[in-house]
Specification:
alpha+beta; 2 domains; 43% helix; elongated; Arc Repressor Mutant, subunit A; Beta-Lactamase
Length: 260
């Protein structure tokens, strides 16, 4: 049996819906049913049904003042997901390699998902003593440098919704288990632009992290440098690692379209 061409599997209604979404580009931010009907060469009733379907899912919204339609938040979220998952990983690798080349310590890129930090990629040091790979791991936000970066730039309401109501779990003697003490540190992190994990998740491991922003100025991830405490004295963290990780965060943010 001859293999069917993929074009034979195309669902026309879905194709029309995508055609409709693609009309909103460049300087075109709002369109009415009549204009869309002309552009798509479809009857107004068909266009209205497409709009109603897309609006119900959040991909299109109506401007009540003009009665025209525009892209909805779901379209933005979809684009941001692509940037975070594909653009972030692709752009991060050379920067992580540069960080490791400069300090010879393991460097990570991580995102925040459903209340946890998820490590997407890493470049390891070639030193014998190193931290265990955390790529793919979900770790609590309140005791990791990357997690605290994300929490620091959230509203109090968002932080309260994410952190458990009860006392925060302590993993080591230095873990912040008091919510108010943690919030005090988060305020400092937001002001300084970097976070430090002082053996708060794993005994003997310290970490520094800085935020990654995209073109919308939102925090979409964090870049971090981790290693054994014996190689992370305060002086080295302050003089070498913090400037390095901040620069890495800024460079990666620029690659994602962020402008100060």
């Amino acid at each position: 049996m001859a293999k069917k061409d993929k074009s034979e599997y195309i669902i026309q209604a879905v194709s029309h819906a995508l055609d409709l979404l693609e009309q909103f580009h460049d300087e075109v931010d709002e369109l009415g049913v009549t204009e869309l009907s002309k552009r798509l060469k479809l009857h107004k009733n068909n266009v209205f049904r497409l709009l109603a379907t897309l609006e119900s899912r959040g991909y299109i919204e109506q401007n009540k003042a003009t009665e025209n339609y525009r892209l909805g938040l779901k379209s933005l979220e979809l684009g941001q997901t692509f940037i975070k998952q594909m653009g972030l990983l692709r752009q991060a690798k050379p920067i992580l390699e540069r960080v490791v080349g400069a300090c010879n310590e393991t460097s990570y890129v991580a995102i925040f998902k459903e209340g946890y930090v998820v490590y997407l990629d890493m470049v390891e040091t070639d030193l014998t003593v190193r931290v265990v790979s955390r790529v793919g791991s979900r770790l609590p936000a309140h005791c990791t440098a990357a997690g605290k970066i994300h929490l620091a730039f959230m509203s109090d309401e968002e932080v309260d919704a994410i952190l458990p109501k009860r006392e925060l779990k302590g993993y080591t003697p230095t873990t912040f288990t008091d919510r108010e003490e943690l919030k005090g540190q988060l305020k400092e992190i937001a002001e300084k632009g970097f976070a430090i994990d002082n053996e708060e998740m794993d005994p003997g491991v310290r970490c520094v992290a800085a935020p990654i922003r995209d073109y919308t100025r939102r925090i979409v991830g964090a870049v971090s440098i981790s290693g054994p405490s014996m190689r992370f004295p305060d002086e080295r963290i302050e003089e070498d690692l913090i400037p390095l990780v901040i620069q890495a965060g800024e460079d990666l943010s620029t690659r994602l379209g962020f402008h100060k």
